[in-house]
Write a structure and sequence with these properties.
Layout lengths: L5 E4 L9 H15 L6 H4 L5 H8 L3 H17 L8 H10 L3 E5 L4 H10 L9 E3 L12 H9 L7 E5 L2 H10 L2 E5 L5 H6 L3 E3 L7 H8 L1
Parallel strand pairs: 1-2, 1-4, 2-3, 4-5, 5-6
Length: 213
């Protein structure tokens, strides 16, 4: 029976129910500085801040304003677990599975998470942020790096994602990708993943192994 040795998790919208909060911040920001691009706040999901700036906000003064606002926003955000996520991680660890966060967020954001969830970092062997890879999602680099840091083949890993850019990154990496419907329509997620879940409440280590087989 085929098993897996590493679980690679996106952060926002996958582990934490935060995408709605980000949509509010970026919605206001995009309407203020880039009203010429409709629904830009949804197009940028899964992109690193550097890539967002390079692509849509090249003005250094605008970048400074956005950065300050984003840092303040992230410090007051609520980092509530997607249902079943914490329990699923603990179940994976009991079965010897290495767990990693693979996020387009930066280290500053992770400090905000740690301030509100002091034991979050203890659940993971590695936390890879935007500082760790040059190519942002939908490029597969971040998930390939996730497998590499554990010295594993991609066939020994599973990706968990919710955003379109992230799902594309997972599939492009060749790693078995489980998509969550926390951010996008189930029909869209189904086209960009190997299996679809609403949350982690009905998922455990044994179920993932069944899916792999």
């Amino acid at each position: 029976m085929k098993t897996f040795k590493a679980a690679l998790f996106d952060l926002d919208g996958t582990l934490f129910d935060t995408e709605g909060q980000y949509s509010v911040f970026w919605g206001k920001t995009c309407r203020r500085f880039r009203p010429d691009i409709d629904r830009l706040e949804y197009k940028i999901k899964g992109m690193t801040l550097v890539q967002i700036f390079d692509t849509y906000f090249p003005d250094p003064e605008v970048q400074a304003i956005i950065t300050e606002g984003l840092n303040q926003w992230e410090m007051q955000m609520h980092y509530d677990w997607v249902p079943g996520a914490e329990e699923f991680i603990m179940d994976c660890r009991r079965h010897g599975v290495k767990c990693a966060v693979i996020t387009s967020s930066n280290q500053m954001k992770m400090k905000a998470v740690a301030a509100q969830r002091p034991h979050f970092n203890d659940l993971f062997e590695r936390i890879l942020t935007s500082e760790d890879f040059s190519a942002s999602k939908p490029a597969p680099d971040c998930y390939l790096l996730g497998a590499k840091v554990f010295g594993l083949d991609i066939s020994e890993c599973v990706v968990f994602e919710d955003a379109i850019n992230g799902l594309q990154a997972g599939m492009a990496s060749g790693i078995f990708t489980i998509g969550l419907t926390t951010t996008n329509d189930p029909a869209v997620v189904a086209q960009l993943s190997h299996h679809v879940i609403n949350d982690f409440t009905k998922l455990d280590y044994e179920k993932v192994c069944e899916l792999l087989n």
